Amino acid sequence: MRLIIEPDYENVSKWAAKYVAKRINEANPTPEKPFKLGCPTGSSPLGMYRELIAMNKAGEVSFQNVITFNMDEYCNLPEEHVFPGLFKGALMVRSTKIVEDMKVAAARALASLVHDRELNEKFIIPEVFDKRCAKVISEEVATVAEYLELAQAPGNREW
Fold first, then answer.
1. Which of 92, 98, 102, 67 is nearest to 154 (CA)?
2. Cα dist. 24→29, 39, 76, 99, 132 in Å?
3. What is the pTM (predicted TM-score) of this model?
4. Residue 19 phi, psi (nearest 5)
5. Would you give the distance in Å from CA 147 to the centre of its chain?
6. How far apart (Å, rounded) are the C-alpha atoms in residues 63 and 61?
7. Using one digit for the tens of pLDDT, what is the confidence trace for 115-134?
């Protein structure tokens, strides 16, 4: 992981937008091989989105062959449980999209981590920082992506 420090929100937004645009341009997306972009929600990324819009209007980046998905699209589970594994699983096999079956697989994988003997009204899913979550969820999501033939790199479990 790389930590980028900028003096203020405006500069962070510009840096992030330039980074996203660079990655899109380097990928040279096509209709057959679109670029997949996970978009965080909330107010934090708004400055970056404004910069990306300006870059698009200036012709510096195109979103024509970019597929976006909002990072709050999950199975009504706490995002901090599902996001890491769901996106990791989709990205490691280069899935062309995230579909409902992958979200269900993430939910089932999460539920599988709580054994019957542990299950009670206060403990139905693992703790947020349980290191097993991302690993188990990503494996199940990747497997479903492969089964549905959405994976562009089937069998890849490198991350």
1. 92
2. 7, 13, 30, 22, 32
3. 0.49
4. -65, -45
5. 19
6. 7
7. 878 877 777 777 766 778 88
